[in-house]
Amino acid sequence: MGEEPTGDVLAQGLVEAVIEREGGYVDHPADRGGPTRFGITEAVARQHGYVGAMRVFPRGEAVDIYKRLFWLRPKFDDIALRLPRIAAELFDTGVNMGPAVAVTFLQRALTALNRNGKDYDDLTPDGKVGPKTLAALDAYLAVRGRQGGETVLLRALEALQGERYLRLAERRPANEAFLYGWLANRLGQLG
Question: I want to staple 4 with a disulfide (CB 3.0 to 4.6 A). Which of 84, 150, 175, 177 is the partner?
Fold first, then answer.
């Protein structure tokens, strides 16, 4: 097995995979996000200066938005330097639920795994990767090891993600239209 890709190579591969999975133009009546193309909502496209019809939203603009908003801004590139698979999971979760939700999952999991503060301080789940989150991740890896620690952390992140999908479907029955796909296509893809 070769080395895992990091940085730009990893980000490019993740963006390409998301675009492939999200597909082209979609305007599902049960989706509160409205029309999307390549998984980018019309609202996000407009916030970033796109004024045309979503049916022809350019792929290149989608790539730029994914890299900027869902990789660099939430600092998943900093996570990738330590654990590329965790960064990939956070990116994918962030695309589907928002980067702050993905980071909150990481912070909650790290806090729950710190053995009541014995290994490192609890984190405030604020949805932002900063020095404290990175220090907790480093301390977690020092105690648990890279391979085993990464696997357990990945499982914790997926458990939180799966629970949120179920809750979304329970709270809004229209989301049941998406639940199977969320569980089939978003969980267990990296493990």
Answer: 84
